[in-house]
Amino acid sequence: MSDPSRMRALMKVLARCFLAGGPEIEQIVARGNRALGRRWRLLRPLAQRYIKAFTSRTRPRRRDVVGFLLHDRGFQRAWSKYSQELFIEHWLGEPQRMQPVEVAKAWDIPSIESTAALADWLGIEAGELEWFADLKGLGYRKSGPKLGHYHYRVLAKGNGSIRLIEAPKLRLKELQREILTGILEKIPVHPAVHGFVRARSIKTFVAPHVGRHVVLKMDLQDFFPSFRAARIQTLFRTLGYPESVADLLGGICTNATPRRVWKNLPVDVELSRVQEVRLLYSRPHLPQGAPTSPAIANLCTYRLDCRLAGLAKSVGAEYTRYADDLAFSGDEGLEKRVERFSTHVAAILLEEGFIVNHRKTRIMRQGVRQYLAGVVANRHMNVRRSDFDTLKAILTNCTRLGPDSQNREAHPHYRLHLQGRVTFVEMVNPAKGARLRRIFEQIRWQ
Q: Are the C-beta atoms of 131 and 125 separated by less than 8 Å?
């Protein structure tokens, strides 16, 4: 074996020792000496430099450790001095240990230290695990929908842009639900987050902004596809999972949309955005429709929420987020500088990898209707009068003419659809909701 090849092999085995040893020098040195066949004095200072380089950071990938060794002057000097004596005696194949960041040590998440252990935890074979994770992107290149893991539905928004619903098929959805309940739901989210969090809702999202002098509403563009697979895998490595396990967990929770999905588009889609959207969804991303996506998005935006909450606190404002809807509110202090404040928010969002949908940015002072996520927040929470009147008319017509006469958008579960709208009004304004509920209960369903 040539010297460059021997050096690459040596760095790979040392990287494995370092990753398995974690932050404990004795573990790293012991494994390194075992792999190299004898005790080497160079390993302890090398391990100390490695720990200093990666302390308090996300668990590194193997390529990151190899890069560290490649640029470490002490290792290079040792190689030039002992290259003829250094050789690999044992390739260590034991599973790596869990190495969570400090704060994650208190979270009650399962310890999964190998791909075999992950397959056992999910109750599937190792081959099935690789197929569902699809780290090689075979699902993107295959043309047949029967071989894919998702059902797709392309929707046109009111402004001509595109929303893609990616609904996982039954078996993959079961795996995602296992990851959601077994891992993701055990991790706390930022206090400002109210979307898809137990005991929080649109009502808790709006409540801090009721009766304020000014309300700033901002919207994130292409929220779920903005989260790339690398970001999701980094989240799982932060929880302490080895690289191979984190990559597979990230693969199960992400998807690359195949080209065939874009062949039959709705007629009201803005064609100028199709190419941009195709590129956006072609890379592995969080699919809107997977049960794990909202929880992962909330966890991946923790640093963003911390920064925005800190910015709001600096001007005496409140900040909450519901998925891609951001809301800020305050009194005279914020009202005087709200335009400049919104510019600072947009800059932070850009630094964190998000794009503001400026067409949906609203600065709402007390003289106008302050409207957040379908709820009016001027003096107390309420639904818009027009929304209430429209829903009341639909329910009344359903009682007189039958529900089929009002289902103009062909909802497959129209009863549940209407019931959900009535429940929303009940949550925001119980008195108005009770009036609608009485009408709803008079409808005769076939």
A: no
Summarize the confidence of residues 8-28 as an average pLDDT: 83
1 band by pLDDT with thresholds 50, 70 and 90: very low
Looking at residue 92, its pLDDT comes to 58
pTM of structure: 0.88
Q: Is 235 exposed, middle or buried (0-12, 13-18, 19+ CB in 10 A)?
A: buried
Q: Can you tell me the distance from the alpha carbon of 379 to that of 381, in angstroms, rounded to the nearest whole number?
A: 7
What's at 352, amino acid-wise? E
